[in-house]
Amino acid sequence: MKVSTKWLQDYVDLKIDPAQLAEKIERTAVEVDEEYRLADGLKKIVVGYVQSKKPHPDSDHLNICQVDVGQEKSLQIICGAPNLEADRKVIVALPGSRIADNVKIKRSKMRGEVSEGMICSLQEIGFAESVVPKEFANGIYFLPNNAQPGDSVYSYLGMDEAIIDLDVTPNRADMLSMRGTATELAAIYDKPVHFSHPQVTETAAEKTSDLLQVTADSTLAPTYLIRIIKNVTLKASPLWLQKRLWNAGVRPINNVVDVTNYILLDYGQPLHSFDYDQIAGKHLNVRLAHDGETLQTLDEQERQLRPGKDIVIADQQGAAALAGTMGGLRTAVSDQTTTIALEAAVFDATRIRQTARRHKLHSEASTRFERGINQKTVAEALDAAAMLIAELGDGQLTKGILKAALAEPQDVTVKISLDKINQVLGTNLSVASVKDIFQRLGFQVTVAATDFTVVIPPSRWDISIPADLIEEVARIYGYDNLPATLPTSVLTPGHYTYQQRVIRQTRQLLESAGLDQAISYGLTNNKKAQRFMMEPSAVTELSFPMSSDRTTARMNLISGLLDDVAYNVARKVENVALYEEGRVFYRQADQVRPREVEHVAGALTGEFTPSTWHEPSNGIDFFTTKGIVEFLLKSLGISQACFVRGDSHEEMHPGRTADIYLGEQFIGFVGEVHPAVCQEYRIKRTYVFELDLQQIIEAPKQAELYHPISKYPAITRDVALAVDQTIENAAIINCFYDHGGKYLRSVQLFDVYQGKKMAANKKSLAYKLTYQAQDATLADEQVNQDFERVLGRLEAEFGAVVR
C-alpha cells in the first residue's frame, strides 16, 4: 500500500518529516518497505512550451522544436516522439539536468542539428511503465495548459509528494486504505481526523428499482448494493485524480475506472462497474457457478468456472462477472457506455480466496475481500463513487440504492482489567492512560474501578479478545517504552531424550567418516517419492501444492540426496559424499495422516580420498560404502547386523546391492544405484545406503566400555610360528586372546613367509604381542609365564612350532 503524505494531510494534520513518519509506522503498526519521492535524484527538469516544430532535414522521424522554457531565448530541441505537437506544454530536461537512472543530459548534435536539452516522457523521468496512461505510453506527456514555462514539473505531476510504501500484514487489513491509515496515525500521534462524507444528489428522474432488479444469496454476499448513473461521458480523469492514482501505483484509465480505483484506495472498498445496457434482462443475481458455465473475463481469457464453488454475478444470459475478482468482458464499460451500474459488496472471503487462487487472479480487490473490509462504510463508499462519477462524467444519479443484501455490522465488546495489562506488559500504567489509548483508537470505553469494557467498532475487525487489546496498548504506548527486564521463572536443566542423543550421535559419526550433511525438501514429485522404498506404502499428496515438483511427501531420503549429487556434479564438483537424517512418510490406504519414520541415508560418488604425491586416490566402491555403514552400526552398538544380497530394489544395481538385517528384521540396504537411474540424474557411478533409524534406536544394543589408557609401560614379545597352510590367522589370534593371560592387550600379525626354508605344506606367521597392566609396572617373570602358557596351547591345538 503506497501512501502519499499529501493525501494523508487531507484527513489528519501531520507536519512530520516523512522519514520520521515512516520509522514511527514501522515501530508501531506495520513494516515499511521504503520512503521516497519520485523527484529524488532528478535535477533541472522544467515545464516547456513547444512554440513550433519542423521535420529534421536528415531524418524521417525526428523533429526540430523551438521550446520556451521561461528563459530569454527559446531552446532548440530535437525530439522523435510520435505524438509531439506544437502549442503544447511538455516536460523538458535542460542541459546539465539529471533524469531517471542518473542519466545526465548535455547539449549535443543530432545528425548535424544542435539539441539543447530533451523533451521527456514520463518513463524517462522515473515513472514506472505500469502507471503511465496508455495514451502517453509510447510518447511524451502533455502537461496542463496552466503550467508555466520554466517552472519545475514536480508539483504538476505529484513528484514532490513523499510516498511511504507499507507492507501491510494480513491482520491489519484496515490499513489497506487511506482512511484506515489516517485513523491509525491519528491514534499514534493523538490527532483528530477530518473525514469528508458524500452528500448525495439524485438528479435523474428514474428510480433505480425501476431500471434494474438484484438478488443475492446472503451467505455468498452479506452485503450487495447497486447504484445507477445515467448519461455518463467517458473521458480522461482530471490531473489531481491521476496524480493520486499513479503515486499509489495504479494506471489512470478513464474517469469511471479511475473513480472505482480511487475509492478502493480511499475507503478500502472494492467496486465494480457494469455497462447497464449490456445487462441481459436487467436483472443481476449473486449465485454460485453452474455446471459447464464459462466466463470471458476482462483480460479476454475464457475461464471454466467451478460449479458450486465460484461466486458469480449473473444476468439472464449467464455469468457476467467473477465476484470480487474480475469482471466479465460482455458487460464491461467501454467508450460507448452511457449508463453505469455501480456495485459495492461484501463477499464470502474464503470463496474469494479459493477463486483467486484457482484462476490466478489475485488483485487489489480480491486481497481486500480475503482479508476483510469495513462493512460499516460500504454504502458510503458507493455513494462517494457514484457522486464522483456523476461529477467527472457529467452524469445523473437515479433515485435510491438497490439492496439485494445489507448486513448490519455489529460492535464487538471486550473486557479486560488494568492488572492484566500491566502484568503482561510489565508496565505500571494508570487507568487514565489506558483509557486515553483506547479512546485515541476510536474505541468506546467504560471504566469500573480498574476494569475496562471496550466496544470495538467494525472498522477494527481484527480485535476480538483481551490479548488484542493488550497489543493495542503496547503499540500506542510504544514498544520502546516497555521495560527491558526478562520475566522471572524457575530454571530447570534441559537434556536430550535417548532418541535425540542417538540421532545426534548418528550425525557426528557420519561426519567423522567424511560425509557432509545435506538437508532436502520433505516434498518431492510422485515418481521420486516411490523410489528406494523400504516398505509398501500409499502416497501422501498435497491438495494444493506450490509447484509440480513438490506434490508428494517423500518415502525415502535417497531421491533428495541424488538431486543434491546431480546439483554438485553439474557444477563440476565430482567428488561428493553426503548424508541426510530426516523423516519419511508412510501411509496405509485407509489412513488420513501418514506415519513419520526416522531414516538416515547417504550418497557417494567420485573419489573418497584424493591422490597425493605419495599415495594414489581411493575411489568410492561398494566396500567403502559398506564399511561406512558397518562403522555407523558398530558405533551405535549394533554388532549383529547381517548383510545379504538384495535383488528386490528396482532402482539399485542387482548384483551390487546388499540388504541389511538385524536378526529377522529388515533395517536398510546399501549398494550401487542402477545405471539407468544415474543416467536420468546425469551423474556417474554412485553408491547409496538408507537405514531405518527408528528401528536402530529401538533395537537392543551392546554397550561399548571404555577404559583409560594405562600410565605404565608396556612389554612386547615377538614370536614366529610354523604352522600348516590350512591354519587360519584368525584362529591363532583368537587362541592368543583366549589363553594369553589378563595382561595381553593386543596381537598383531606383522609377517607371513612361505619359501625355500619352509616345508612345502608349512607357512610362517610372525606376531607381536603387547602386555600392559593398568595398576603397576609388569615384571618379565609375569609376562614370560603367560607367554609360555599360550605357546603351549598353540602347539597343542595347531601343532605350531616356534621358529
Automatic annotation (TrEMBL):
What the record says about family reads: Belongs to the phenylalanyl-tRNA synthetase beta subunit family. Type 1 subfamily.
PANTHER family (alphabetical): PHENYLALANINE--TRNA LIGASE BETA SUBUNIT (PTHR10947:SF0), PHENYLALANYL-TRNA SYNTHETASE BETA CHAIN AND LEUCINE-RICH REPEAT-CONTAINING PROTEIN 47 (PTHR10947)
Keyword Metal-binding, does the record have it? Answer: yes
Identify the EC number(s). Answer: 6.1.1.20
A single GO BP: phenylalanyl-tRNA aminoacylation
The segment(s) forming the TRNA-binding domain are: 39-154
User: Matching HAMAP family, A to Z?
Assistant: Phe_tRNA_synth_beta1
Q: Where is the FDX-ACB domain?
A: 710-803
Q: Where in the cell is it found?
A: Cytoplasm
Pfam families registered for this protein in UniProt: B3_4, B5, FDX-ACB, tRNA_bind, tRNA_synthFbeta
Supply the enzyme class, top level. Answer: ligase
* Protein's name according to its UniProt entry: Phenylalanine--tRNA ligase beta subunit
- State any single GO MF term: phenylalanine-tRNA ligase activity
Annotated ranges, domain B5: 409-484
Q: Which CDD domains match?
A: PheRS_beta_core, tRNA_bind_bactPheRS
| UniProt subunit comment | Tetramer of two alpha and two beta subunits.
A cellular component term (GO) from this record? Answer: phenylalanine-tRNA ligase complex
Where is Mg(2+) bound in this sequence?
D462, D468, E471, E472
Cofactor(s) demanded: Mg(2+)
The protein's annotated catalytic reaction(s) are: tRNA(Phe) + L-phenylalanine + ATP = L-phenylalanyl-tRNA(Phe) + AMP + diphosphate + H(+)
- Keywords for the protein's UniProt record, in alphabetical order: Aminoacyl-tRNA synthetase, ATP-binding, Cytoplasm, Ligase, Magnesium, Metal-binding, Nucleotide-binding, Protein biosynthesis, RNA-binding, tRNA-binding
Q: How is the cofactor bound?
A: Binds 2 magnesium ions per tetramer.
